[in-house]
Amino acid sequence: MFEDATKKLKKTIRGLIPIHPRYELKSNDVKPALEYIDAYWHKLERYHPKDDESLLGLPNKYLVPAFEEGHEFDFNEMYYWDSYFMVQGMMDAEHKALVVGILENLVSEFERFKVIPNASRMYLMGRSQPPFLTSFIWEVYDTYDMDKKWLKRMMKAAEAEYTSVWMGTSKPNARQVYKGLSRYYDINHLNDLAEAESGWDMTTRFGRKALSYVPVDLNALLYKYEMDFARYYRLIDEKRKSAAWEVAAKYRKNVMDGLMWSNLRGIYFDYNYAKEKRGTVSSLATYYPMWAGMVDKQQAEQLVKALRRFEQRGGLATTDGQALNQMVPGVIAPGTMPTQWAYPNGWAPLHYIVIKGLQRYGYHEDARRIAMKWLKTNLDWFNTNGVFLEKYNVVSPDKPPAKGVYPSQTGFGWTNAVFERLCKEYIDGI
Questions:
Q1: What is the pLDDT of residue 324?
Q2: Is it the case that residue 325 has pLDDT exceeding 50?
Q3: Longest Cα–Cα distance in the chain
Q4: Where are the chain's structural domains?
């Protein structure tokens, strides 16, 4: 099923106007990189069925974000949103057991702890990560033709996660805070740890006041949950519940449009509910609503025009670079925090979200242009240095990315996966 969809997409893309030759790639160009990726996955595979000190036991094999021999920053735990992106290059028959197993690990964490933690460590239970559970469920269900009994268990967990974690109003899940919208949170009620839950640790978006914001990306993800629940209840012929979820999704869209959408700039901004005003940082989070299918035709047109705010020689910068507040990318100074989730860095999961949003609304030429720029940036670095990175400097692709609060990683799980997925979609002969 997945292969059929990919073939149809490729056929559509073939008929488009060719992009600049500088960004054209052929199967022979990417073959060594794909061989590296294929050989790298076994380094990331773990199986840890029993609790061991702080590391949680999980029933199935899983992938960790990166592995580098002797690196000071070692991974042995499974991460929430990393897992969703790492399987994007593996949605095939060969990897079915691993892909389904990773998803079932996430659900087992929720069933056991009533939260999917940031990662499978006891000390990371106080926060989660961006919620991609329903998207993960439906992609597995559609790709592998899973049965309804399996789907029922998965969706039951996802609905409980939505209700108790993301729509919770009190500790330990005080996330729903303003007009039905939710924020990122941490049980310690600390802004920097709430920002870590966003996955964008650290970023210029929140000015180190993440608890005061209802973010675009999180609420678009919750809109996607609501529409995914509506689809589930239609499937099992419970029309009233399906309609109720569609009403919830429509309400969220209307509130988000009223608070976050700027007609003047044609993008969404995070909303500071404590000050009751929009944030000032333009970021790729604005494309989550497009990925989730919640924008109308006019908004989609404006979002496509707004790509010029972010598009650089090497792909899409995470923010537009105009509003850095008092935080300097990659620089540690008194009162500042290094912000790797900002200009000039680009990240694989955000490119994937933008490209899928553009495809969803029929902007295939724009999607292909961005995909090929990103692939070229990844490939050039690999050809020069022999590794993939967790992030790239898309403004000056031949230079290292701006550093973050933790050591830079090579490898790298979600970069490899998105590279592989985009090669399958956009390069002949793959």
A1: 47
A2: no
A3: 58
A4: 1-46+295-430
| Three-class DSSP category at 316 | strand
d(Cα 180, Cα 157) in Å, to the nearest integer?
Answer: 21
Which one, of 175, 402, 205, 396, lies nearest residue 284 by Cα? 205
Under a CB-based contact definition with an 8 Å cutoff, are residues 63 and 83 in contact? yes
Question: What tokens were used for 402?
Answer: 């701006």
So what's the pLDDT on residue 409?
A: 86
The residue whose two tokens read 């007609």 is 263
Q: Is residue 396 within 8 Å of 347, Cβ to Cβ?
A: no
Is the pLDDT at 26 greater than 70, yes or no?
A: yes
CB 268 within 8 A of CB 285: yes
Q: Could you report the per-residue pLDDT of 148-169, keeping only the tens digit for each?
A: 999 999 999 999 999 999 999 9
Q: How confident is the model at residue 23 (pLDDT cuts 50, 70, 90)?
A: confident
Residue 17 has pLDDT above 70, yes or no: no
Q: Cis omega (within 30 of 0) on the bond before 202?
A: yes
- 332 vs 214, residue with greater confidence: 214
Q: What pLDDT, on a 0 to 100 scale, did the predictor assign at position 261? A: 98
Residue that is written with structure tokens 């079932």 in the block: 104
Phi/psi-derived region of residue 107, left when phi > 0, alpha when psi is between -120 and 50, beta in every other case: alpha
Burial class (CB in 10 A: 0-12, 13-18, 19+), 289: buried
Q: Indicate whether 14 pLDDT > 50.
A: no
Task: For residue 239, give the nearest of 250, 230, 248 by alpha carbon.
Answer: 230
Of all helices (H) and strands (E), which one includes residue 181? strand 181-182
Place of tokens 């989550």: 288
Given a contact cutoff of 8 angstroms between Cβ atoms, the answer to whether 246 and 230 are in contact is: yes
Question: Is the Cβ–Cβ distance between 87 and 102 less than 8 Å?
Answer: yes
Identify the three-state secondary structure at position 12: helix
- pLDDT value at residue 71: 67
Q: What is the 3-state secondary structure (H, E, C) of 234-256?
A: HHCCCHHHHHHHHHHHHHHHHHH
Indicate the burial class of 374 (C-beta count within 10 angstroms; 0-12, 13-18, 19 or more).
Answer: buried
Tally of CA atoms within 13 A in the half-sphere of 188 that contains its CB: 14
